[in-house]
Description:
Layout: H1 2-20, H2 28-50, H3 55-83, E1 86-99, E2 105-115, E3 118-123, H4 130-135, E4 142-147, E5 155-156, H5 163-192, E6 196-205, E7 211-223, E8 226-235, E9 239-248, E10 252-260, E11 276-283, E12 286-291, E13 305-306, E14 309-310
Antiparallel strand pairs: 1-2, 1-4, 2-3, 4-5, 6-7, 6-14, 7-8, 8-9, 9-10, 10-11, 11-12, 12-13
Helix pairs in contact: 1-2, 2-3, 3-5
Amino acid sequence: MMMIHILTAAFAVGSFVIIKKKRFKMMPFMSFVILISFVGFGSASLLSIILPEGESSAYSLCSITLGLLLLLVGMNDVCSLMRCKEKIAGVYCGYRTYSGARGISVQSPVFRYTYNGKEYHEQTAQNIPYKTLNYKMIEGNSYDIYVNPKHPAVYILSKKLETGTILVILLGVLFLGFGAVSMNLTEENDLDQWIGHYRFEECYNDESGLFMVMDYELEIYKDEGKCYGNLEIIGQLTWVTARVEVRGNSEQIALVFLENLQNEHGETREYHLDGVLFRLRQEDGRIETYWENIQPAFTGNISWGEYFKAV
């Protein structure tokens, strides 16, 4: 997870610089790409910190963010080819190198040029091969560049669609698809561990001193790729049955109300559709319950604790 935190920090710095120097006015698309990347990797970092059991989901989210980043970068190259139309002369001022993992690096040339009376000193929107920069371009010489008339800080050197751009777009689609599929599979596989029968029985004396028993039974099952549950609450004066959807992961689930089911007494309770009735969490081999829209009959059981047990 360290790499995710590093990427979050890097894009956070980039976002801060963009906002502080108002670069989003001059380079709106690339600014958008950097901000989206910060949000995506930042969300994955928070997910891994706040919910350590959601680490697999964090990796899936990173794959989606990386795919989206590559797609946007590739599409930026395509858009630059269409929007950078004005051919002018620019002075080559060297290049900036961005290093990645395993010694991989990319080079982005920097040019100084004047457009509509204003001087610019900007990095190109394209990545140029290292050999081209070292053997075909000389620092201080003038070369033709193509400027975007609406955003003159954006320019390119070549009007040709590079093979690298096509590769970046294909990789983006691959990472995006892999992340989406893995997130769905992770959620399904995690929830499979909860399939089974659970029961909680509470015994207490009511206000009049009458001994009361309330029985809670939950049957979790899978139907068409999703996990659902049938909840039954039975007491001397109570008989409620409801169908719920199970959402969460291998460590924690939420029982979300879908509909009331018919029973012999015809009793129903009014719960909000999509409202969480209660949550179950695996903790050191125990199942802990966090009550929400459903509250136990005995007030001594209202606080979270170990109530339901697998049977």
